[in-house]
Design brief:
Layout (H helix, E strand, L loop, with lengths): L14 E5 L2 E10 L2 E5 L4 E6 L5 E2 L4 E5 L2 H35 L3 H37 L1 E3 L4 E6 L6 E2 L4 E6 L4 E8 L11 E6 L2 E11 L8 E8 L9 E7 L4 E5 L8
Antiparallel strand pairs: 1-16, 2-11, 2-15, 3-10, 4-6, 4-9, 5-8, 6-7, 8-10, 11-14, 12-13, 12-15, 13-14
Length: 264
């Protein structure tokens, strides 16, 4: 009868190496910059970015009607011009009276009054300029700018609606500034430090990434704390679930053999 082929046997060494206990924890991909962008002024919305729009830092996510502010600016400029005309008139009066003051005590008294009025007019002009600058600042704020580059994830208000200070307009999410949020047992703070490498896995893909921060403040019931792990864009999307292998014990010496040498 045919003999079965001889089994191929290879020798492998049993080695002693340091190993640590590891726990597998669920995590979620999040953005480090995820904001509700609000209006700072009251007014009717002339334009709002569409959901899915990519907005660069400094570009508008919404524009508020500025017609009343433009009228207010014209009024501010007219007030400054009126005060400046009074200042110019008073300056000419002061120059005329200074020539007469050396010979006429009455002219000296009138000169003092003109100088006093000139000082008050200069203060009035400063106040009017501050009012003008405030109007210009408000005009800038009618253009609600993105504080960072990102994608418009949702709109809370639409074109034509009336907004007010503090009212959320859009949700802006930076899809390039990613990290992973994971809730870990409080005891893990003793075995992990910021900068330590951990394995992240999802969809049959594995990467090594560094712990960015550990927040060692836990809930009294769950005894869990939050950890944030760096994540380069291009691996997973915001909201995806991943699994993290986290060290959960001191490193100890242990005998180890190749995995293929084990027969289950």
């Amino acid at each position: 009868s045919a003999q079965p082929p001889e089994a191929s046997v290879e020798l492998a060494s049993v080695t002693e190496r340091g190993v640590s206990a590891v726990i597998r924890l669920p995590g979620t991909v999040i953005s480090r910059r995820d904001s509700e962008i609000s209006a700072e002024l009251s007014g009717r919305l002339n334009w709002v970015a569409e959901v899915g729009d990519a907005i660069e830092q400094g570009e508008p996510v919404a524009i508020i009607d500025d017609h009343l502010l433009q009228l207010q600016l014209r009024d501010n400029l007219a007030e400054i011009a009126r005060i400046q005309a009074d200042i110019d008139y008073n300056r000419r009066q002061s120059q005329r009276l200074e020539r007469l003051a050396a010979q006429n005590n009455m002219a000296q008294s009138e000169l003092d009054q003109v100088k006093s009025r000139q000082a008050m007019l200069l203060q009035d002009r400063t106040k009017a300029e501050v009012t003008r600058d405030r109007t210009l600042y408000d005009l800038e704020r009618t253009r609600v700018s993105a504080p960072f580059s990102g994608i418009v994830a949702s709109r809370q208000m639409n074109l034509g609606e009336y907004t007010s200070p503090g009212a959320a307009l859009v949700r802006l999410v930076d899809t390039q500034a990613l990290e992973i949020s994971v809730n870990a047992p409080l005891r893990a703070v003793h075995f992990n430090t910021p900068g330590s490498q951990v394995q992240v896995e999802a969809d049959d893909r594995q990467i090594l990434s560094a712990i960015r921060s550990i927040i060692p403040v836990g809930d009294a019931r769950s005894r869990m704390m939050e950890m944030r792990i760096n994540l380069e864009p291009g691996n997973w999307s915001i909201g995806e679930a991943v699994t993290i292998d986290l060290v959960d014990g001191h490193r100890e010496l242990s005998l180890s053999v190749p995995r293929d040498a084990l027969v289950l």
